[in-house]
Amino acid sequence: MKVLFVCMGNICRSPTAEAVFRKCVQDAQLDDRISIDSAGTGDWHVGKGPDQRSCLAAAKRGYDLSALRARQVVEDDFRRFDLGLAMDHDNLERLQALRPADSRSELDLFLRRYKLGEDIVPDPYFGGDEGFERVLELVERASAALLDEIRGRL
Length: 154
Fold this sequence. Notes:
By secondary structure, this protein is an alpha/beta fold.
């Protein structure tokens, strides 16, 4: 199973989701059966590391984002990944518009998929530290639900 997390610039929400879910998968000893990556729909930050505030908030909870580098969604992602999970409606719409006809990826909103009371992971970029903490809370809850879903598919 291959999962791609997607946000706008791939420096806050999607790398956080990648790191959190990667740890869930490793803890479940399924890292040989589940591949994880993240990307952005925009190209502003390609090659850059995650936002420092994301890194600091994640580190407080035991997640390491330091090795991640931003990249933009490419056409091949729609063939390589089984599941593309967008952080908000805008990025889901962008993914749907980019999706080639021969795509095998299932696309959805990360939170909405698991009926966690909210549809989107809010973008913390222009806010304070509490926004990055909120992203982690939401992503941790959704990651547990995603792991349960994938276990049922394996």
